[in-house]
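hey
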């Protein structure tokens, strides 16, 4: 592993951010989410293309881990459990079916190809996520956020994130060598849910009065954000000690702080931190993609491409059919199905975890990455085809406004 000197580290950071911001802006310019540009930046800078960034570099790996913790902290801050409970049965059914069906199809596809049980579980789990941010931005651009179908999509996508976090915790335990049994899965799920429930019960009595006292005190600018980040990282550490995934702790901290009077101010500060750390995570995920494995003219790569194509098919079919699960719903189920398709950042987290733990080899990881990018790319134009822009609709809101609507 290459040892970085300080000037070299600074130079690589400059190159990383320049590529991420440039390609992210270009992606947004053609109507796609910035995360796709950041992934492409990582692919370009990785060892299989320019060779500037090593996916196994320990320094950048740690920065990427901090980035994903901040990302999950943000998701927790933007999630309102009370609002989720009011969404209705339709969103809940879409969410559950949208997790179970893609997982079953993905697991079955990998099993038919003769892949190991663990690989099939990780690949199937990567299909369960839904990127709420991508769909929310498209719906807002079209002036459709307040329509019934949109509310079901957004509610189901947020529920998918919560279910996906529990699944991720389970899969993390399995990739670390735990035996795949009903008892193991039940235990890991119980720990994940138990930690969140315990954190919410204990924290609900401690955090709000503590934050009110801190708000009355005089601190230097940014102190509230740093104290909140300390809580998130501390709870991530406690979650790890409890046998759960660190991101469960970061997410639980976000749930707690998001419900306080200072939640909006904390969110703004964390979003600013995320502008620095979160792109590092996505770029480093991209560096792990070996484009040489996607060459269709190389015989050894044909299985990787076949797996990628199969995963794309089951990923789209599983989420699309989930839109038709609430048979009593009278809205346009096709819109719901398409809105649930993009995997985005949560699917990337599953894939990266599988690669870093050795559960996935570079070929299978690249196949899952291709699935994530294709499903994320195809959703905006399909939604725009199904939903015309509402005449006289307000211009697209700022990202913070969209996140507030989602939460």
């Amino acid at each position: 592993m290459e040892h970085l000197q300080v000037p070299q580290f600074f130079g690589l950071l400059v190159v990383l951010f320049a590529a991420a911001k440039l390609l992210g802006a270009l992606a947004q310019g053609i109507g796609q989410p910035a995360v796709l540009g950041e992934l492409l930046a990582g692919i370009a800078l990785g060892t299989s293309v320019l060779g500037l960034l090593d996916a196994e570099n320990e320094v950048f790996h740690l920065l990427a881990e901090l980035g994903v913790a901040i990302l999950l902290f943000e998701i927790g801050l933007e999630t309102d459990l009370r609002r989720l409970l009011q969404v209705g049965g339709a969103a809940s059914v879409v969410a559950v079916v949208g997790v179970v069906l893609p997982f079953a199809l993905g697991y079955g596809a990998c099993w038919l190809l003769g892949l190991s049980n663990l690989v099939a579980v990780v690949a199937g789990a990567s299909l369960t996520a839904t990127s709420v941010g991508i769909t929310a931005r498209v719906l807002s651009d079209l002036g459709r956020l307040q329509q019934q179908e949109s509310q079901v999509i957004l509610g189901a996508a947020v529920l998918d994130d919560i279910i996906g976090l529990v699944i991720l915790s389970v899969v993390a335990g399995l990739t670390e060598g735990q035996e795949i049994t009903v008892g193991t899965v039940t235990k890991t799920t119980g720990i994940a849910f138990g930690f969140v429930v315990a954190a919410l019960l204990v924290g609900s009595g401690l955090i709000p009065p503590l934050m009110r006292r801190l708000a009355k005190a005089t601190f230097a600018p940014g102190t509230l954000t740093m104290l909140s980040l300390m809580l998130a990282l501390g709870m991530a550490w406690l979650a790890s000690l409890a046998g759960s995934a660190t991101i469960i702790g970061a997410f639980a901290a976000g749930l707690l702080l998001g419900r306080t009077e200072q939640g909006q101010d904390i969110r703004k500060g964390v979003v600013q931190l995320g502008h620095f750390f979160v792109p590092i995570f996505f770029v480093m995920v991209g560096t792990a993609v070996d484009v040489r494995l996607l060459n269709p003219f190389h015989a050894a790569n044909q299985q990787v491409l076949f797996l990628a194509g199969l995963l794309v098919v089951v990923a789209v079919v599983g989420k699309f059919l989930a839109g038709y699960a609430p048979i009593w719903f009278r809205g346009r189920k096709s819109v719901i199905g398409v809105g649930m398709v993009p995997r985005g950042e949560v699917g990337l987290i599953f894939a990266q975890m599988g690669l870093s733990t050795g559960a996935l080899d570079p070929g299978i990881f690249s196949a899952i990455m291709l699935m994530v990018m294709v499903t994320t790319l195809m959703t905006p134009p399909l939604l725009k085809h199904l939903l015309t822009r509402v005449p006289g609709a307000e211009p697209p809101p700022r990202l913070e406004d969209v996140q507030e609507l989602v939460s």
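The domain at 59-178+281-406 is CATH 1.20.1530.20 (Na+/H+ antiporter like fold). DSSP finds 17 helices and no strands in the chain.
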